[in-house]
Amino acid sequence: MTENSKGQGFDISKYRIATGVDRRKLVIEETGDKFEVTVKQLSWAKRNQLVSKCLSLGTNGQNNFDGDLYIRECLKQMIVEAPWGVTNETFLASIDSRLGSALETLVPSAFGEESPVATPTDIKKG
Fold it and tell me: Which tens digit of pLDDT belongs to each residue from 15-63?
């Protein structure tokens, strides 16, 4: 095992995602309606897969990020149990912006831990 500068072993358990599920209470701001969903964390690798799926290189060399697709794909992966049953494309296409906005709060940022879901203008070219 590799030792760190303080002579203690590296504790990989601090960096693993939770294997269980988490109950999250959400509120629809406009109506005050409250509901719970059961979610699982996305791993770093799964989040990167989803980001890659949502990035495309345009004919002009610009990167394009489909934030809508990213949010929908994350919700389908993360929500394990919800009052409406299965979270799929049919369900997501049937809800209004009030419920959609509440669900969006579950989605991890595509680019960095603290920033909101990125837009194409947020993506830097290499």
Answer: 998 888 999 999 999 999 999 999 999 999 999 999 999 999 888 888 8
The pair of structure tokens assigned to 43 is 């791993």
CA dist 10 and 120 (Å) reads 37
Q: DSSP E strands: which ranges in 30-126? A: 34-39, 55-57, 63-65, 79-81
pLDDT at 7: 55
Domain ranges of the chain: 17-120
- At 57, is the secondary structure helix, strand, or coil? strand
Q: Is 63 exposed, middle or buried (0-12, 13-18, 19+ CB in 10 A)?
A: middle
Dist. CA 33–CA 79, nearest whole Å: 19
